[in-house]
Amino acid sequence: MTKKKQIILFDDNWLIKASSRKNDDQWVDDVMNQINGSGGIYLNTLRLWFDRFPLPGKQKNHLKQGIESFNNSDHLGGVNELAWWKFINSFGWSASPVRAGKGKRPDFHVIRPCEFFCEVTTLNISEKEKKLLVSGKGVPLNHNVSLERILKKIVEEKSEQIKYGASKSKPSVLILFDYTFWSGLGTQFYRAFANFLLGKRAGFKELPAELSLIIYVERSVIDGRIGISKERSAVYHNPNPLFTMSETIFQMMRQYRLNIEETLPVQVENKSAHWFWL
Predict the structure, then answer these.
(1) Domains in the chain: how many in total?
(2) 85: CB partners within 8 A, 6+ apart
(3) Residues 74, 37: Cα–Cα separation, whole Å
(4) What CA–CA distance (Å, rounded) separates 9 from 53?
(5) Alpha helices of the chain — where are they, by DSSP H?
(6) Is 172 domain-assigned?
(7) Given CB 3.0 to 4.6 Å as the disulfide criterion, which of 4, 77, 104, 190 pairs with 234?
(8) What does the pLDDT read at residue 7?
(9) What string of DSSP letters covers 46-110?
(10) Is the peptide bond prior to 113 cis by the omega test (within 30 degrees of 0)?
(11) What integer pLDDT is reported at residue 275 of this predicted model?
């Protein structure tokens, strides 16, 4: 029997290319400038997660290409998929990646603590914000622009993945990692998102009923360690979903329901008060 070839993330060939590249690639610059410190810790963390990630060869190669990409958006998309996998496993959940098939499918099938499907997506810095930064101009703080972008992204890009769960008579959850310009700067975007979805704007009415809830995630890398903010991440429950989900499932996070009713996270033993360190 032929032994399957191991798929290695950030191998020697990648490191040579990363060291000799001529373009400015934000995440690669950050890593290679600290390769013997925090940059090396970051790469080794992703190597370990990737090695344990249970995907068949073809899908795993595709994930490898995304994570190793020098393009920020492609890299973050793959890393966030691994980060969410690591996050749910840290709570002892039972889940598996959904295998590729006909049509678009969500990323994960969760079995325990209850059965549902979830799709991981990333909101990156907009092209308008990039141009303003390149020209040396400031980026205005306008949450409404980001909120409308989220609504458009879900409707135009994620409807098929969201409706997959309904075809199995199960809830669907969207995991939204925020990498817009103002993410991580303490603007409390999660509250603006609650008002947008569950307040007068009633943004949830424009989203598929198959979407049971949205989880907004603010992720950060500090000294090479990857963490999810407990203070600025939140769960939003659709007021009229096809399938409801109990608050107890995500009790480790801040949660919002209709009329912006807030439930604070339950302190989890052996977890930081501010971060979920992965």
Answers:
(1) 1
(2) 49, 53, 95, 97, 108
(3) 24
(4) 12
(5) 12-20, 26-32, 38-52, 57-68, 72-89, 127-134, 143-157, 159-167, 189-198
(6) yes
(7) 190
(8) 87
(9) HHHHHHH----HHHHHHHHHHHH-SSHHHHHHHHHHHHHHHHHHTTT-EEEEPPP-SS---SEEE
(10) yes
(11) 86
Please count the residues of the chain.
Answer: 278
Whether residue 149 contacts residue 126, with contact meaning beta carbons closer than 8 Å, is answered with: yes
103 domain residue, yes or no: yes
Cβ contacts of 88 within 8 Å, gap of 6 or more:
95, 108, 110
Q: How confident is the model at residue 5 (pLDDT cuts 50, 70, 90)?
A: confident
Measure the CA–CA gap between 8 and 62, rounded to whole angstroms.
12
pLDDT in tens, 244-278: 999 999 999 999 999 899 999 887 655 567 889 99
Q: State the Cα–Cα distance between residues 72 and 70, nearest whole angstrom.
A: 6
In a domain, residue 120? The reply is: yes
Compute the mean pLDDT over every residue in the chain, rounded to the nearest whole number. Answer: 87
Amino acid residing at 67: I
Cβ atoms of 180 and 126 closer than 8 Å:
yes
How confident is the model over 80-125, as pLDDT tens digits? 999 999 999 999 999 999 988 888 999 999 999 999 999 999 987 6
CA–CA separation, 75 vs 65, rounded Å?
A: 8
Q: Which domain holds residue 234?
A: 59-277
The CB-side HSE value for 254 (13 A sphere, CA atoms) comes to: 22
How many separate helices (H) and strands (E) can be counted in the chain?
9, 11
Would you tell me the crossing angle of helices 57-68 and 72-89 to the nearest 10 degrees?
120
Token pair of 194 as six digits? 């609650």
What pLDDT was estimated at residue 266? 84
